[in-house]
Specification:
11 strands, alpha+beta, 12 helices, about 300 residues, 6-stranded antiparallel beta sheet, binds fe (ii) ion, elongated, single chain
């Protein structure tokens, strides 16, 4: 399961202390031991019982202008520090079923009951409350192709919660958790790996009952833009999409380019021929995704051709 890192440190650190220490060039959040070495800093920040409320009040007085600029998450998150492409620090609020927010918003905004891995590593500490629960699993990323419905050797480890002061390290592409509601409103603080490469790395939702990949959770904006490019009037951007389909370093982007080229064809069979190139690929992800897309198009042929 995610690594629990024992930290008995009782000293209290300011956010500025932690940021100054993490800005040391030697800190590398992509390296497990380097990230683990930041555990005493995060514990020290959690020992500081005032800083988060002070930041929240300051943000409210400033109409949350910094959050508007720097926070790409929902209101569940307060962005505490984002200054480099290497890492950022955030606070997360975890409502319990008794909280009004939970009753009005349901579970999905908080990712409860959505078993998933992460395409980044992060360090977390329980800051307030009893902490969210998780059922923890592990898997070998290198053993899966990444296709929805693919069987995965998910190993259940334990059910535990992120109690106040408990520090854990979640390993990218290895630790899976089915996150469950906290018994009372709780807050955690994270030091997150940040990198421009993250949108190109897959994050999966799992079906833990059947030990399968349920779906790929993340999509890069490149994939969305390919749909526009493939359908651009007069086909002027088609060469760009072809280039992506043939040579982009990310498998998901190469498949997305093929899918959009196929979708831009007026004729279903012409689209299937484009996808056939992918199905014949030596790359297992592109071949598998192309075959799935071909099946889908055959199934909906009538609707695509305007007959259904
Ligand atoms: Fe998670």
């Amino acid at each position: 399961m995610a690594r629990v890192i024992a930290c008995a440190d009782q000293r209290s650190l300011s956010l500025g202390d932690v940021v100054a220490a993490l800005n040391d060039e030697a800190f590398d959040p992509t390296d497990e031991e380097s990230l683990a070495s930041a555990a005493p800093l995060l514990k020290g920040l959690a020992n500081n019982r005032d800083f988060l409320a002070e930041i929240a009040i300051a943000e409210l007085k400033d109409r949350c202008s910094r959050q508007s600029l720097e926070n790409r998450y929902s209101s569940q998150v307060i962005m505490l520090h984002r200054a480099s492409e290497k890492y950022f620090i955030r606070a997360n609020f975890w409502p319990s079923p008794r909280d009004t927010l939970f009753k009005t918003s349901g579970t999905s905004p908080f990712f409860y009951h959505v078993p998933h891995d992460h395409n980044f590593s992060f360090l977390t500490v329980g800051y307030l409350g009893p902490g969210y629960w998780s059922e923890y699993y592990e898997y070998e990323y290198g053993d899966v192709v990444g296709l929805p419905g693919e069987t995965v050797d998910l190993k259940f480890v334990e059910k535990a919660r992120l109690e106040q002061g408990k520090v854990m390290l979640y390993r990218a592409h290895r630790d899976v958790h089915n996150q469950l509601p906290a018994d009372d409103l709780s807050v955690s603080i994270n030091i997150m790996e940040a990198s421009p490469r993250l949108p190109f790395l897959a994050q999966y939702e799992f079906d833990v009952k059947n030990c399968e990949i349920a779906r790929i959770l993340n999509r890069s904006s490149t994939e969305a833009l390919l749909a526009l490019a493939a359908n651009h009037g007069a086909g002027n951007a088609r060469d760009l999409v072809e280039n992506f389909a043939n040579g982009h370093p990310c498998d998901h982007v190469r498949f997305a380019a093929l899918r959009e080229l196929a979708g831009a064809e007026d004729d279903v069979d012409a689209g299937l021929a484009v996808l056939g190139r992918g199905a014949a690929s030596g790359n297992a992800l592109i071949a598998g995704m192309s075959r799935m897309e071909m099946t889908k198009r055959e199934l909906h042929r009538g609707w695509i051709e305007g007959r259904a």
